[in-house]
Write a structure and sequence with these properties.
Elements: H1 3-22, H2 30-41, E1 47-53, E2 56-64, E3 70-78, E4 81-84, E5 90-92, E6 96-106, E7 109-119, E8 123-132, E9 137-146, E10 149-153, H3 158-161, H4 164-176, H5 185-188, H6 196-203, E11 217-218, E12 223-224, E13 245-250, E14 254-259, E15 264-268, E16 273-278, E17 287-294, E18 297-302, E19 309-312, E20 317-319
Antiparallel strand pairs: 1-2, 2-3, 3-4, 3-5, 6-7, 7-8, 8-9, 9-10, 11-20, 12-16, 13-14, 14-15, 15-16, 17-18, 18-19, 19-20
Length: about 325
């Protein structure tokens, strides 16, 4: 073999080596990923996608079992077979919902981004997560708050802080998320009917520690034209929250409605005005029963050993029975 032929062979060998070094298998579609999950688990995934990371293929899927728990599944391709990745597979509770699933790349690393909303009857959290298939690791920042008003970031864990690209990406997602209650000028306006509960709390600061059976404590009310029965918790709260009524009473002058893990809203028929009557110091001491003592006096009982109070609307005072 002459030098020219040898040179051509060497170039071809290098070219072939480079081709296989950088060759990636054709991208698998989400439909193909779902079909593989169906084959492996005999279940229809609510989400399935394929992702390539550090030269390996993964399928990520979400399944729902009989008790409505959701299971996060990760399969890794091993010799054209699919092996469940136990370190990254686990249950997500039935109170959780998964949103915004998206494959992204940060530098040379592939991730699956998604948000998980975990919500109870009054409060919940939103988890912003990047999952790294090659590391079998979930990077998460969470935000907590009352339903419709999630705005309290939890402390960021060291694994997220130590990965600047991941940290920056998750913070950007939180800043742009419509699921997070970002503060607006309307939120800061305490005279807005939508902030009626906060206005009551500010006008009656620490009133819970001042109420005694021996003397009457003054209480301040603000009256509104807007129907607070349908808006007291703010515009972002699901309507079911307003329908969680624990007690309702009415006479010729007033109507009062108490809400589960909420407040007591009043309507003055003589003025055609709405107002916040009572706000417990803790949502778990929500008002359970309301009863008229006379035409202008109402008694409120609370859950979980919360205080019972009597509110006198003829002179705007509160006493403890």
């Amino acid at each position: 073999m002459n030098k020219q032929t040898l040179g051509i062979v060497v170039v071809l060998v290098i070219a072939v080596g480079l081709f296989f070094a950088f060759y990636e298998k054709p991208t698998m579609s989400d439909q193909e990923a779902a079909q593989i999950v169906q084959h492996e688990y005999v279940k229809n995934p609510s989400f399935a996608t394929a992702i390539r990371d550090s030269g390996d293929y993964y399928i990520i899927a979400v399944l729902t079992d009989n008790n409505l728990d959701k299971k996060f599944i990760v399969l890794k391709q091993v010799a054209d077979l699919w092996q469940e990745h136990p370190a990254a597979t686990g249950k997500i509770g039935w109170l959780s919902s998964i949103f915004d699933m998206e494959k992204i790349k940060l530098g040379n690393n592939s991730y699956l981004f998604f948000t998980t909303v975990e919500q109870g009857s009054a409060a919940g959290s939103i988890f912003f997560t990047l999952f790294s298939p090659s590391e079998s690791h979930f990077y998460t920042i969470s935000v907590f708050g009352a339903n419709g008003n999630v705005n309290q970031p939890r402390p960021v864990s060291d694994d997220v802080k130590n990965n600047k690209k991941v940290n920056d990406y998750l913070l950007q997602q939180i800043a742009a998320s419509p699921k997070v209650a970002h503060i607006t000028n309307q939120d800061l306006n305490t005279n807005s009917p939508e902030n009626a509960v906060r206005k009551w709390q500010l006008d009656n600061e620490n009133i819970w520690t001042k109420i005694t059976r021996f003397s009457a404590t003054p209480v301040n009310f603000t009256y509104y034209d807007q129907n607070l029965f349908n808006s007291w918790a703010g515009p972002n709260v699901v309507k079911e929250y307003y329908q969680s009524i624990t007690s309702s009473v009415e006479n010729d002058h007033y109507k009062f409605v108490a809400y589960f893990k909420g407040v007591v809203i009043g309507y003055d028929k003589t003025q055609s005005k709405y107002f916040v009557l009572w706000v417990p110091s803790d949502m778990y001491e929500w008002p359970t029963d309301i009863a008229f003592i006379d035409a202008n006096t109402v008694h409120i009982n609370s859950a979980n050993s919360g205080p019972s109070v009597t509110i006198h609307l003829n002179n705007n005072t509160i006493t403890s029975p």
